[in-house]
Amino acid sequence: MKFILFFTLSSFFSAHAYQLLEVKAVSSSKTTFITRQGKGDGVFVGKKGTFTTDDASFIARAKTVSREFTQWEMVNEEMQVPFQTGELVTYNDAAEYLWTLTPSETRKEYLKKYNYQEKESWLIKAAFSKNLSSSVSNAAPDSEIDRASLGFEGHYEKTLNINFRLNTGLRYEKEVINVDGGQFETYRMMAMLGMTYYFERAKWLGDNLLYTSINVGYGLSGTQTTGFTQRGVVALLPSLKFGVQIPMNELFDFITELGVESLASREKGGAFPDTRTDQINGLLNFGLRRYF
Q: What is the pLDDT at residue 287?
């Protein structure tokens, strides 16, 4: 008897004992639901499995199976599906009630770790950029211009659902511009607004998450060198980034990003009445997120 109990608990803690699945859809009758798990995962019509939420456990049968999706129906016809579209549930391909076999506190910690929670956070990033192409209205057609910048960003973030996170914040940067026979410095301060989309969890990434984000911004710009100053406005239209989120603990995530952005600035002053600059930059960012 002790051996059976030990084997059962060991199976629970094994990485292959159960899986975490996102519920893609729930029928209006609450008798069937769909998960992203199909024939390629060993599911077939008639296969039974145990699904467990934070406070319920039940057995469902595969009703229809495609390559990537499965429609499950409740084995107990008097029971309704106890979760909503987008929720994460644990799945075991054995027809057993895991709720009665595994420690409830351990299960709650597991679900708390992966299930959607409405969160707010602060994100601080160091941002490096290198110019890929640019055009300046007052520059000579054959002039060579080299641009690189170092900046910092601070964002407030709010989780909207399991896939989307909204952010707003500020960005400050210094750009060094090397041209034939001289050097300029440009300073920018922008207010930013953006949206981040998190892709579905991949087993090979473990707890890490891949995401993509888009941001727009608007603010002030100033370019200067010895005896020369121009000031104006700058717009970020837009930036597109791909990144990975690496959890450090319950409060902190480390992030790294690669991306591209489009900047347009209009400045006045000095010897030139109006200078228009359009540029495309490559981006490399590192950041630290703190939940609260």
A: 98
When the candidates are 2.40.160.10, 3.30.1330.10, 2.40.10.340, 3.40.50.300, the CATH number that belongs to 2-114 is 2.40.10.340
Q: Cα(178)–Cα(180) distance, rounded to whole angstroms?
A: 7
**Residue 89: CA atoms inside 13 Å, Cβ hemisphere, count?**
30
List every span in the chain annotated with CATH 2.40.10.340: 2-114
Rounded distance between C-alpha atoms, residue 154 and residue 163, angstroms: 21
CB 223 within 8 A of CB 185: yes
- Dump pLDDT digits (tens) for 51-95: 887 777 788 999 999 988 999 998 888 788 888 888 888 888 765
Kindly indicate the confidence band of residue 279, based on its pLDDT and cuts at 50, 70 and 90.
Answer: very high
pTM over 0.70, yes/no:
no
* Topology adopted by domain 120-291: Porin (2.40.160)
What is the pLDDT at residue 161? 83
* Region for 218 from its dihedrals, namely left if φ exceeds 0, alpha if ψ lies in -120 to 50, beta otherwise: beta
Q: Which ranges in the chain are annotated with CATH 2.40.160.20? A: 120-291
